[in-house]
Amino acid sequence: MTDESVSPKRNPIGRVLVWVLFFQLALAGLLFWGDLRDGLRLPGFGPRAPQLTEPVRPGDQTRRFDPDRAPPGGRPMPSSPLPDRLTLTVVEGGNRALLEGGILPGDAERIEKQLADLAPKPEGVILNSPGGSVQDALMLGRYLRQAELTTALRSGDICYSACPYLLAAGTSRTIPDDASVGVHQHYFGESTLLPAFVAVDDIQRGQGEVMTYLDGMGIDPLVMQHALVTPPNEIYVLLPEELTRYGFTEE
Description:
The chain is of the alpha/beta class. The chain has one domain: 2-enoyl-CoA Hydratase, Chain A, domain 1. The protein has seven helices and nine strands. Strand 3 (about 95-100), helix 2 (about 105-115) and strand 4 (about 125-130) form a beta-alpha-beta unit.
C-alpha cells in the first residue's frame, strides 16, 4: 500500500467571496480618498462653524454652507429659492442681464450664447448665485471680460463659491454693503474614484488656474488664502474692507 496525501478541495464559492471582499475593500479605499479630495474632514473636537444666518464680524467670518439645505428667507440667503442652474433674465429695459442660480457644467456655453444674442447689448450683468462649477465660472468670466461687461450685486444678493470669479470679470464691480460675497475650497477633477496623487495633481493645477485668472482680472490672488483654509461645506464671507483690499471694489 502506498500512502497518498489527499489535498483538501478548494471551495470555488469561497474563493469568489474572498475576491469580492477584496474588491469591496479596494473600492471603499478609493471612495475614501475621493471624499478626502472633496473636503471630508476627519472627526475633531473643535467647534462647528456658526449657521450661515449668523452675522459676521472681523475674525468671525466662517459659516456653515449647504445651499441645498439653506432655507430661503434666512439672511443672507434670498427670500425665494434660486434656480438650480444659471438663468438669464433681461432687466432694466435691456440695460443689464440678471444671472441667478447655481452654476452647473455646460452653463457657461449656454449663457454666452444667450448674452451674444441679446440686442441691444447689455452694459453689464447682475449676479445672485451660490456658485457651482469652477470651470464654467472661469469660462463665462473670460467671456464677460472680453465683452467688456460690468458686474454687480444688488442689495441682499449673494455671490458664493465659484460666483466671485464671475464678479471679478467685470470691467467695474458694484457690491452693496448688505450683499454677501464668500469663498471656500473647490473640487477640481472629473471623478472621485481616483488615487490620491492624481487628486492632489488636479487640485494643484486647478488652484493655479484660478490664481492666474484672478490676477488677470485685476484681483489680488491672496484672496485665495481664505478659500484654501475653508472646507467646501463652509464659506468664508468677505468683509467690505476685504473686498476693497483684494481689488473687487475701489476705495
